[in-house]
Specification:
CATH superfamily of one domain: Histidine kinase-like ATPase, C-terminal domain
Largest sheet: 5 strands, mixed
Helix content: 55-70%
CATH architecture of one domain: 2-Layer Sandwich
Oligomer: single chain
Number of strands: 7
Structural class: alpha+beta
Number of helices: 7
Strand content: 5-15%
């Protein structure tokens, strides 16, 4: 038998209850703190996913989720980026299919029927011009008709190019090599209007994978448009630089100091047959955009901060272009 004082016994019991309460409170605080840390780590990847999704919805299709440290979040990020890449590829494939189905069938079925009478018309007009009995007035009319026939022929050629699939021949080339090729084929309007061409090379020895001849055609088309809208003695700037907002890509642009592109027209200029030029076919820019799409690139048009128009396109340095059919 052991006798214990009643007050001492209850004091020990009260102390035990207090200690149990303190331990429970501390445990609760630790659980809440750990839950906060874990929830924060889980919510951070979701916040970044949400931010990337918002940027993509605004047109920044090259945005991708960064690599996370946590394994689960990293796997989700990789899956998300893979999904975006596939959606981007499917979107470009859809553009390709739409252009081929809408215009390819039309151009293929009509082009030969148009060429035959057009060739006959051109030969007859040339005969009239060469005939010694043709009056000066008739020669003037024949020249006008011949010019219009050549314009129709150009339109047919551009229509065929727009509707026909492209077979790219890729090679690595520097901006300097590309511009050297472009400068050999400048439009006559450059000299006629005494325009100045300024080259800004911020790519140096950086090489990128492209079809040189087709990108040359794109740049010449942009330069021709810039020359048409530039004032006499104006300046055209051709610039190559890294795409700052899109690492692993290069950006090529052509700027002029002409009237620029009206805001309401920027969404229309890549539509086939839309043109604001007096003798334009409306297929130059659509063909240029098609070439850039086949390179898996992106085309932009925006106002030049210093006045005029600014056309630019971004190309991946190493990324593969569209899969091409072997029979094209």
């Amino acid at each position: 038998m052991v006798e214990i004082d009643k007050n001492a016994a209850f004091h020990w019991l009260n102390s035990f209850n207090i200690l149990t309460g303190i331990v429970f409170l501390l445990t609760l605080i630790i659980v809440i703190f750990v839950s906060f840390i874990v929830s924060k780590k889980l919510s951070l990847p979701l916040q970044k996913l949400s931010a990337v999704a918002q940027k993509i919805s605004k047109g920044n299709h090259w945005e991708r989720v960064p690599q996370f440290k946590e394994r689960e979040a990293r796997e989700v990020g990789v899956a998300f980026n893979t999904m975006l890449d596939k959606l981007n590829t499917n979107y470009r494939t859809m553009i390709k299919s739409a252009s081929l189905s809408a215009i390819g069938e039309l151009s293929t079925s009509l082009v030969h029927e148009i060429r035959r009478p057009l060739t006959s018309i051109k030969l007859n007009l040339q005969t009239l011009l060469d005939h010694e009995f043709t009056s000066p007035d008739h020669q003037k009319l024949a020249n006008i008709s011949l010019d219009q026939s050549l314009r129709i022929e150009t339109l047919i050629d551009e229509l065929l190019n727009y509707g026909k699939p492209i077979q790219l021949h890729m090679e690595k080339i520097s901006f300097k090599e590309l511009i050297t090729r472009v400068m050999q084929s400048l439009p006559e309007e450059i000299q006629e209007k005494k325009l100045q061409i300024n080259i800004e090379d911020k790519l140096g020895d950086q090489k990128f994978l492209i079809d040189k001849e087709r990108i040359v055609l794109v740049l010449l088309n942009l330069i021709e448009n810039a020359a048409y809208w530039s004032p006499h003695g104006g300046v055209i700037i051709i610039k190559g630089q890294p795409a700052l907002e899109n690492p692993g890509w290069v950006s090529l642009c052509v700027r002029d100091n002409g009237p620029g592109v009206a805001k309401e027209n920027r969404s229309k200029i890549f539509q086939p047959f839309y043109t604001t030029r007096e003798n334009g076919t409306g297929l130059g820019l659509p063909n240029a955009q098609k070439i850039i799409n086949y390179h898996n690139g992106t085309f932009f048009v925006e106002p030049n901060p210093k006045g005029g128009a600014l056309f630019s396109f971004q190309l991946p340095i190493e990324e593969c272009c569209f899969e091409q059919d072997s029979n094209n």
